[in-house]
Amino acid sequence: MNSSRVxxxxxxxxxxxxxxxxxxSLGLDIDSRxxxxxxxxxxxxxxxxxxxxxxxxxxxxxRDGKVGRRGPxxxxxxxxxxxxxxxxxxxxxxxxxxxxxxxxxxxxxxxxGKAGTVCDCGRYRKVVxxxxxxxxxxxxxxxxxKNVIAGIRETEEKFYYIVQEEKSYRESLTHCRIRGxxxxxxxxEAINTLIADYVAKSGLFRVFIGVNDLEKEGQYVFTDSTPxxxxxxWQEGEPSDPYGHEDCVEMLSSGxxxxxxxxxxxxxxxxxxxxxx
Length: 277
Description:
Keywords: Calcium, Collagen, Disulfide bond, Glycoprotein, Lectin, Mannose-binding, Secreted, Signal. The protein is of the alpha+beta class.
């Protein structure tokens, strides 16, 4: 019985040894085989950061963005070139009268005259007085003639004189009338053109003409009281009288008319009817 047990145990030991040797031989075969990748179900940690690659080509231009906020005000630029001269505006109101100047120095005394002779001139005083009046009138007429600009204009029926003496409208009327004329009345385009050319070639910008609305506001008439029915040549936007003081009329060198204040002083043009032969 005991010998049977010993034999059994020795057989078991031999089988165990053979089994171990078989397992070792299988382990060597497994280690010599190539490794097969196995997908793991758990998360894999990232490896270290690699080197930077080469820069790629520029991409396509993107869409325009939204308009940004308005920037701050820029620095003031340099002064530009001077523009062309504008048209001449209306003449401004007459300024206040200036202060009286200082009294001048006394002149050098004159040479003593010769002693006069005794004369009974009582009967000649009246004649001398009349001569003084005639001389004064003659001087006034000579002054008027001197102030008439050279180059008188005329038509078949009338003469036209520009007087180079600044007067108010009413003074101009008087100066023309006491010499047998009237302030010029351009009643048609031909006469208006003639006067405008006369004014421009005389180097003037404006003159009084015989048109006004002194009698009734807004109803302009010529100085002979005839209405402006057939002809007028107002500047654009005229007559404009916002304050009701522009009752007299001036002609510009362009031939256009403009209403103006009567107290202003300027040159004026008279017309005289030719004497019939």
